[in-house]
Amino acid sequence: MGFQVAVVVGGPLLIAAYVGQKLDDEFGTAPNLALVAILLGLAVAGLGMFLIIKRYIARNPTPPTSAAAREAGQRWEREIQEREQKKESGEESE
Predict the structure, then answer these.
(1) Which pLDDT score, from 0 to 100, does residue 92 have?
(2) Please, are residues 16 and 37 in contact by the beta-carbon 8 Å criterion?
(3) How many CB atoms are located within 10 Å of the residue 72 CB?
(4) How far is it, in rounded angstroms, from Cα 73 to Cα 56?
(5) Which helix (H) or strand (E) holds 30?
(6) What are the backbone angles phi and psi of residue 7, rounded to the nearest 5°?
(7) Residue 39 CB partners (closer than 8 Å, separation 6+)
(8) In this structure, how many other beta carbons lie within 10 angstroms of the beta carbon of residue 33?
(9) How many CB atoms sit inside 10 A of residue 41's CB?
(10) What is the DSSP string of 37-94?
């Protein structure tokens, strides 16, 4: 997946920089067309990243929370609340 991200982000940016430079050389508009081309490359890279993330999420859905995980979270919350109550009452010394 890392190579895929590198290609999706790097490819459009490299192509945009090259095309923008060539257009600036052709029309003498440096650096305006290069900047516009790079911004378009960023937009294409962003769209590519969106599609990669969307496909990744579709292939790896978040599993539902198990009962054991839910109970562990509830125990943790109770422990935190008990510690806060002890601090407020002054029972716990640091």
Answers:
(1) 55
(2) yes
(3) 11
(4) 27
(5) none
(6) -70, -45
(7) none
(8) 19
(9) 22
(10) HHHHHHHHHHHHHHHHHHHHHHHSPPPPPPHHHHHHHHHHHHHHHHHHHHHHHT----
Q: What is the pLDDT of residue 65?
A: 84
Burial of 14 (0-12, 13-18, 19+ CB in 10 A): exposed
| C-alpha to C-alpha distances, 69 to 73, 79, 87, nearest whole angstrom | 6, 15, 27
Amino acid, single-letter form, for residue 31: P
Structure tokens given for 9? 């982000």
Rg, C-alpha atoms of the chain: 26
pLDDT digits (tens, 9 = 90+) for 39-92: 999 999 999 999 999 999 999 988 888 999 999 999 999 999 999 999 988 765
CA 72 to CA 2: how far, in whole Å? 34
Q: Which range (4-8, 31-35, 75-79, 90-94) has the least confidence?
A: 90-94
Side chain identity, residue 90: G
